[in-house]
TrEMBL record:
Originating species: Ruthenibacterium intestinale
PROSITE patterns, per database record: GNAT
Protein name: N-acetyltransferase domain-containing protein
InterPro entries xrefs: Acyl_CoA_acyltransferase (IPR016181), GNAT_dom (IPR000182)
Signal peptide location: none
Residue intervals of the N-acetyltransferase domain: 1-153
């Protein structure tokens, strides 16, 4: 798999693909104009994993605030799932462009509902791929998330991670929306 940064056009094509639309319901997809604006500001970057013929197999979109990145989207094309390509792609990102970077991500918190098995599988996927659970949680537009991380700087505690995550959310959706729709806290459990 060849992993490379996507041009805005390539990212837009992935964003508009049926697979992306099916993987991320409308409530989870931010408008393309917002993503493009962040790309132009240097606060958003997209990577694709391609086969030898140049066909997109996987993609990941990240928002950036200084040295920290928030994984906004990670997707393997449906025809390529259950073949280990998502793990391969993620490992190539971690060993390549993100080797010296810090990444945080969100995984919906299991809550005893019908989606718990899927949420646990997602969490296990990230843990198998070198992410760890942190003691930070977030609530974003009504959804409760556990925060996972890769390659945090030495000495990063939950309080400073929570502050950094709030900064990432502010870059992503703006101060006003962040104040209204986002809560970040340290999980006492």
């Amino acid at each position: 798999m060849n992993v490379r940064e996507m041009t805005p056009r390539q990212a837009y094509e992935a964003y508009c693909a049926d697979a992306f639309v099916q993987a991320f319901p409308p409530a989870e997809r931010r408008p393309w104009r917002s993503i493009l604006s962040l790309i132009r500001m240097g606060a958003y970057v997209c990577y694709g994993g391609y086969d030898e013929q140049g066909t997109l197999l996987c993609c990941a979109f990240f928002v950036r605030a200084q040295e920290f990145y928030l994984m906004d989207y990670l997707m393997t094309m449906p025809a390529q799932r259950s073949r280990g390509l998502g793990s391969c792609f993620l490992q190539k990102l971690l060993d390549g462009p993100f080797a010296q970077r810090s990444i945080v991500g969100e995984v919906e918190t299991p809550d005893g509902g019908a989606e718990d098995e899927l949420r646990r599988r997602r969490l296990a996927f990230y843990e198998r791929n070198r992410f760890c659970q942190t003691g930070v949680r977030s609530w974003l537009y009504g959804v409760d998330y556990r925060i996972i991380a890769w390659n945090l700087p030495v000495g990063t505690d939950d309080a400073s991670l929570a502050a950094k995550l709030t900064q990432l959310y502010t870059v992503l959706i703006g101060e006003e929306r962040c104040a209204q729709w986002v809560r970040v806290w340290q999980d006492p459990a």
